[in-house]
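Dear all,

This email documents one entry for the complex benchmark we are building for the journal club exercise. For each entry we list the sequence lines for every component of the assembly. Then comes the predicted three-dimensional structure of the complex as a token string, followed by one or two observations. Please use this as the template for your own entries, and keep the labels exactly as they appear.
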Amino acid sequence: MDVTQLQRKSEFEWHIPATGNMRVPAIIYASDDLIRQMDAKVYEQAVNVATLPGIVGASYAMPDAHWGYGFPIGGVAAFDADEGGVVSAGGVGFDISCGVRALHTGLTAAAVEAVKQELADVLYREIPAGVGRTGGIHLRNRAMDEMLVGGAQWAVKQGFGTSEDLERIEETGRMAGADPDQVSAKAKKRQQDEMGTLGSGNHYLEVQRVAQVFLPEAANAFGLREGDAVLSIHCGSRGLGHQIGTEYLREMVVAAARHGIALPDRELACAPINSPVGQAYLGAMRAGINCALANRQIITHLAREAFARVVSAAHLSLCYDVSHNTCKLEEHAVGGERRRLYVHRKGATRAFGPGHPDLPEAFRRIGQPVLIGGSMGTSSYVLVGTKQSEHRSFSSACHGAGRAMSRHAASKLWQGRAVVEELAKRGILIRSRSMRGIAEEAPDAYKNVTAVVDAADRAGLARKVARLEPLICVKG
Amino acid sequence: MSDAACSSRGRDTTVRRQACWQHYQHGADVGVRGIGATVAAAFEQAAVALVAVVTEPAQVAPTTRIDIACEAPDHELLLVDWLNGLVYEMATRRMLFGRFQVVIEGQRLRGQAWGEPIDVAKHDPAVEVKGATYTTLTVDQQADGMWVAQCVVDV
């Protein structure tokens, strides 16, 4: 990105003043290096989002922002329904409520090392991953609708996990306001055999070692100690979310003109929150959130069974579960006034600071765990939400590394088997059905997650708590 | 019906007369582009490009045929609907396709896709496609008369 177009407000904050059709400014949080590497399209997309009706404050881009469809990935924007504010399917993304869940394993990394091969094989066998894989749960009709309304709470009622898990999940595991009637039969059909599956692409299940603690107080509150082994799961709402995104994106493209919304680009398709299409999408999207929460809960159950088979001492308890593709109604202070806003986070993680009433008791004093997934073979991070991020980014932070090169370029540069062997030499076991998939997901195909996390920390969006290093990675 | 990736020579629009397909870079996702003498031929090639995101299209045996019909007010929306129709069929039937035939009459498209169930050992599928988007979406006739149909797909 050409930095001469930007006003630098601080070391990590760059502004695009509101000009032309922009209703608010655009603000990008990034280091000098990250902003220079950032795709110029992020500028264009952040500006486009700033033109949408009812936007409040600013159109934000996180340090890992990159070119998305409509909204940038790493984009955050809040809308006021009473001021003609809009909801956008492209502002949430196709993988509704894609997110990261971290669990303590009750084991040290040393204990995992002793059984690493066997554990990798059992996790790989028991957790369906990759293109075309189905799960062991098949939902039809009423059972599907109950899942879409109940989320992880439904999953726990079915015997997948315990009620203690729920308090460690955003929305206590169930997004209110889900309306299965707004989810098409096609979306439900696409999901009927996909519950409890990881999917493909950048999704994974990893066993990780807590390699470094930066903030001992927060790490203690989160139950993270150096040398511990944790399990992280990165996946979303699978085919159901993809189909909801596909269908509502199209409906909003057609409906925008009817609502008098001039779109700079079709891909910004949106509808007024207070319109039939807007309300229908919110009902469907919330059902998609519940699908993702139920999916991660079922995978948690499968992982618990796999661990129990290999190490009897394992006890998997939830640290936290965050979603990074959502639109949620939240209360935020804007200009000294409390307002209820529809906050879109597309490739951005909610990061509530200390004292937020929606946080579980265990974290209320310290702030929300913010889980940042790395790429295969690189570090992941746990951060904690800050008070300042409320007025800096509607309490949002980054979500991951972001790709540095295309899948095609990566598959030309690396061979899947060589990547697996190289990582094995570093003590990281990879399990995947697709060698081409491994090549496309090679660690160096991604940007440096550490630089992204450092920028989020220095910009005050969230503070670094701990760094996690992979031991086992089951790839989708 | 050609289903070849465009050769480097084929990227030169002044000499390209063969139907072919390409991928182009888009951040974390992939752009799919079909090129053909007609809109329908370009759509067929865009479909090959879509499958090539997942696997090598030539590896897919055309043993089973499925039909897709869609209708849209313009060619751009019709392309997205066609590709999303294929994404849906691939996901729900757990199939891959390697050969396509498209007929476009006014706002309506009737398409046929031939393929087979996903076989991991044979197809080594890299990634599933979540959906076609409106990003860099165009259906245009080039100076040489060839049609180009393209958009970004989310993976």
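Observations: Chain A has one domain: 3-404+446-475. Chain A touches chain B through 51 residues (CB under 8 Å).
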